Amino acid sequence: MNSKKPLNIPSHDPSGFDVEALKRAIANRLTYSVGKDIHTATDRDWLHTLCYAVRDRLIERWMETQRSYYHSDAKRVYYLSLEFLIGRTLYNALLNMELDDTARKALSDIGLDLEALREQEFEAGLGNGGLGRLAACFLDAMATLGIPGMGYGIRYEYGMFHQDIENGQQTEISDPWLRFGNPWEFPRPEVLYPVQFNGQVTRFRDAQGNTQHHWVDTEVINAMAYDMPVPGYGNNTVNNLRLWSAKATRDFDLRLFNSGNYIHAVDEKTASEKLSKVLYPDDSTDSGRVLRLKQEYFFVSASLQDILYRFKKTHDNFAALPDKVAIQLNDTHPAIAIPELMRLLVDTHQLSWREAWDITTRTFSYTNHTLMPEALETWPVNLIGLVLPRHLEIIEEINHHFLIEVRRRFPGDEAIVSRLSLIDESNGRRVRMAHLAVVGSHHVNGVSALHSQLMRESIFSDFHRMDPDKILNMTNGITPRRWLNQANPRLSKLITQTIGNGWLKNLDELKKLIPYADDPAFQSDFLKVKTANKADLAKLIQSKLGFQVDPNSLFDVQVKRIHEYKRQLLNLLHVITRYNRIRAGHDLAPRTVVFAGKAAPGYARAKLIIRLIHSVAEVVNNDPATRGLLKVAFIPNYNVTTAGDIIPAADLSEQISTAGTEASGTGNMKLALNGALTIGTLDGANVEIRDEVGAENIFLFGLTCEEVKALEHTGYNPAAHGHANAELTQALDMIGQGYFSPETPDLYRPLTDSLWQHDPYLLMADYTDYIACQERVDALFSDPAAWAKRAILNVANMGQFSADRTIAEYAEHIWNVQPVNSCLLKQKRAA
User: Fold this and answer.
1) Cβ atoms of residues 52 and 183 within 8 Å
2) Strand 186-197 and strand 219-231: pairing?
3) Are residues 421 and 638 in contact, defined by beta-carbon separation less than 8 angstroms?
């Protein structure tokens, strides 16, 4: 930090947007909100001071936005997600409000540096990976488009674990991201809803002879709201992210406390508040599974109570609910919302079952994120019956009515009845949450064209037969404000200087770059930007990992969750093959291979892959034969900030999942938008990226979905593929026989044994084509002008993958909502 200068600032409007007004706001906030002066303020104090000053400038827009929604009686979208991976907030807010230059100048006048302050901010620990990042991009896009939208989730006290690497092994450390407070949130102690668990259901007949249900003798935990503003880009719209925190119904038992039993006096409070402590508790134990189910219901129940409270403020008739409320379920985690809304409408508000079901199915829509049956969430019937007894009754009633319709449509076909039932009777009686979400929603969407097609053909084929119009495609998108403007300021500046800044709100404007793809001067500028970004990443690798990499080498990047189907192991097989070729005297282009990603704490095979990456890196990076030709770097604790460090520097984007396993992917979009060429299978959104950028501007290899199915149908013999390729056999033998782990030769045998004997994700089948494709990568990289042309064309043709486009399609085809211009409404009211 620079030496601080006295805050002798003339008086200005404290909510103004000029430099002097922001300086005055900083001075006031330092004194009155942080309680410090320039002599005692720490770097973190200055960060919070700036956040408060920026937040002040959001509040008026935020309140005006909400007033506009009420004034126009707009239909609202409520996005229910167990994750919101929003990353750091400060710079995103500054850029969306177009205040970054003003803030930089104001801070400089005081003797502070904006970039240094940005580094002090902790990421919000509200998500894990792609699911949560997608939700964050969608909130940004809704605000930018003026869509009346609101996110609902959980305010986790401890987010996704912090990943450390010790002796090559992943270790998990808690991530108490709230320990210094969160200057962006507004606690709402008055917004408090009771959430019930356990207990029993009693029944009685009312005066009209109808059966009524009471859920009684329950454990009650309160859900308290915390609000975070979500600003749109370049407009006056500020939407809301509302997060729920668990609060005990009473602080502690005073009688126990007074009797000296201090620990038990606070047990109830401590146990109650576990619900919002940690993201994704370990569900390998009974207690962990109960906590996970309670978390899902906790945030769903509070959110629906809040939604209905807001609706009832201006509407008397629940029949209008689907016309004023759209609820999007982000995956199956919030699917329990469907029986919860039924419970609220039937039990609390006394609607008939038929009325309530019609309202419910016209209100909900569901996004599916996986094609793998084993990844579709199910819950044991007896567990739901214990924790949510009334909901189990409702689910069984929904299933009863639904199966009557199935039998009517398919008489005599009990096989399809079994497949479609919400309750799986073949596996210990489990509730299929994806089935519940499909049956209770008016539309279901996949997240890429291929994914949606496969949904219709595989996991939801029977539902597609029932209702061919229910499953739609909404290809995922990313926000260009975060993933280009913020993450890659050098490239953003070059693009804006060349074609203007219209691309920030209309990513299709990037097509104006197409004529520049053949322009040697622009190619040169583009490559200079990439090299500068690579130099930055090289410094980060030196700082974090302690070794040097060459910014002029090809930066080959695979950054994503560590999972067998994402095939980091196939990438590593190429690294070993490349290493062997270099040692054999092959003339290969210098390459730096970058990995990053977390493995789930209980996923032993994925954690073993991380350890193998480090073992290979240890050998490769220290072999004199590879000096300057090959480096392997695993960057720990991959998160939104780290993604922003890595993605702008990537030359090659590894998107190599087995065809038919990745729903969409958004990392592929981020990397291509930043000028990386994709090497990948025809899986997920890779198919659409190929269609947009051109097959000649992407490196494709491997089996297609159809070929995968055919191979699995005829019988797959992985060993035959291994024995047919000497380089593959050599690489596997080196892993399995301890070349990279001489002290424990059998350490990685489980990985190689699995490939030789089973290979469920077909690495052996795709290896030969993958290596050949990597040879084409080398050949193109040796021609900088040709490489630059293809990279520029990737950037220029990424408009289809803006989250703005995705949200506009949701708004038109699923939610039936219209944008609201809060500024215009304010002007109309004033007139």
Assistant:
1) yes
2) antiparallel
3) no
55, 566, 591, 805: the active-site residue: 566
365, containing H or E segment: strand 364-367
Catalytic residue among 367, 592, 661, 666: 666
Q: How far is CA 212 from CA 4, 63, 342, 396, in A?
A: 68, 41, 13, 16
Q: Which residue in the list 247, 464, 560, 598 is annotated as catalytic?
A: 560
Q: Is pLDDT larger for residue 372 or for residue 542? A: 542
Strands 630-634 and 423-424: unpaired
Q: Which of 29, 435, 534, 561 is catalytic?
A: 561
Any catalytic annotation for residue 369?
yes
Is position 607 annotated as part of the catalytic site?
Answer: no
pLDDT tens track for 762-813: 999 999 999 999 999 999 999 999 999 999 999 999 999 999 999 999 999 9
The question of whether 566 is a catalytic residue gets the answer yes
pLDDT digits (tens, 9 = 90+) for 245-302: 999 886 655 565 566 655 555 566 667 788 999 887 767 788 889 999 999 999 999 9
In this structure, is the dihedral angle defined by the CA atoms of residues 209, 212, 217 and 222, taken in order, positive or negative? negative
Kindly state the DSSP code that residue 658 receives in the 8-state scheme. P
For the question of residue 826 being annotated catalytic, the response is no
Catalytic, out of 369, 456, 470, 567:
369
Residue from 274, 230, 10 nearest 136 by CA: 230
N-term to C-term CA, the chain:
48
Single out the catalytic residue among 670, 721, 790, 805: 670
Tell me the residue ranges of DSSP E strands in 533-619: 554-559, 591-596
Centroid of chain to Cα 119: 22
- Among this protein's residues, is 666 annotated catalytic? yes
Strands 554-559 and 591-596: parallel
Instruction: Determine contact, residues 535/627, Cβ cutoff 8 Å.
Output: no
Catalytic residue status for 498 = no
* Paired tokens of 95: 């850029």
